[in-house]
Design goal:
Elements (H helix, E strand, L loop, with lengths): L2 H39 L17 H26 L3 H7 L2 E3 L7 H17 L7 E3 L25
Antiparallel strand pairs: 1-2
């Protein structure tokens, strides 16, 4: 597979993820609306606890629920995007990683730092910050971006 095929597949996958995200948001809005609408059907009225004679679809209520859910989902997405925009180090810290001190005296940490430094020198890039995840994850996270000088890698046990 050449670069352009990989780029085309990545774009196709990105489009699919955006559509699925939109579908998930729609399902969440409809689910919350149905919960609120059914809850209002059984809300106490002036006549007592009987079910209220309200239509199941109430456009102003649906609009209010949709705006509220879009605000919550959009706000959460914006917050997470702002966190991740700081780069690979921020991702490593969010996953429980700790930054290695370049002056560390631990022999294993020194070995890792030396390997990363030698690879950076050999490839002609600045030495990146090195993070270690002390706890093992169940699965390795996908590296979403490969920008120059902004790399995040997990070093596993042999």
């Amino acid at each position: 597979m050449d670069f352009f095929e990989a780029q085309g597949r990545a774009r196709s996958l990105s489009r699919r993820l955006v559509v699925l995200y939109g579908l998930a948001v729609t399902v969440i809005i409809v689910g919350v609306y149905m919960t609120v609408a059914v809850g209002l059907q059984f809300a106490p009225t002036e006549e007592g606890l009987e079910a209220a004679a309200r239509p199941l679809f109430d456009p102003p209520l649906f609009a209010a629920v949709a705006v509220g859910m879009l605000a919550v989902i959009g706000g959460g997405s914006a917050f997470r995007t702002a966190q991740l925009r700081r780069g690979g180090g921020a991702v490593a810290e969010l996953l429980g990683g700790r930054r290695l001190d370049p002056g560390s005296s631990d022999p294993l940490e020194r070995r890792l730092l030396n390997v990363v430094e030698e690879m950076a020198i050999a490839s002609g890039i600045p030495v990146p910050a090195v993070y270690v995840m002390d706890k093992r994850l169940r699965r390795r996270p996908h590296h979403p971006r490969r920008g120059s000088g902004d790399h995040s890698r997990r070093v596993g046990d042999p």
